[in-house]
Specification:
- By secondary structure, the chain is an all-alpha fold.
- It has one domain.
- It contains 3 helices and no strands.
- It is rod-shaped and about 125 Å long.
- The chain starts with 16 loop residues before the first helix and ends with a helix.
- Keywords: Membrane, Transmembrane, Transmembrane helix.
């Protein structure tokens, strides 16, 4: 009846409370930094690296000989464009005055 139940002493903490708090704060502070570093690495690997490799692979190869024969459609397009452009008149007299 009157048996006193003694509780075993609580297990001592492995580290003091102040050190545990500092560890916890450092861990909580480092999580967003690590997360942002991982995001930047993923962005670099999947976007910038792929974009750079696509640009280097898609460089146009210039032909050594030009065998371009414009079709009549292209000639008429060229005429339409030149008709829309303003005409600049060049005065030879002004040129000779400028060079003197």
């Amino acid at each position: 009846m009157g048996v006193a139940q003694t509780q075993p002493p609580s297990a001592p903490h492995l580290y003091p409370q102040a050190l545990q708090l500092k560890l916890y704060q450092a861990f909580i502070f480092s999580i967003p930094i690590l997360f942002s570093i991982i995001l930047f690495l993923l962005f670099y690997l999947f976007y910038l690296k792929r974009r750079a490799s696509n640009l280097s692979n898609s460089r146009p190869v210039l032909p050594t000989t030009t065998t371009f024969n414009p079709t009549p459609c292209q000639l008429s397009l060229k005429r339409e464009i030149t008709d829309k452009l303003p005409t600049v008149l060049f005065d030879e007299e002004l040129r000779t005055r400028d060079t003197q």
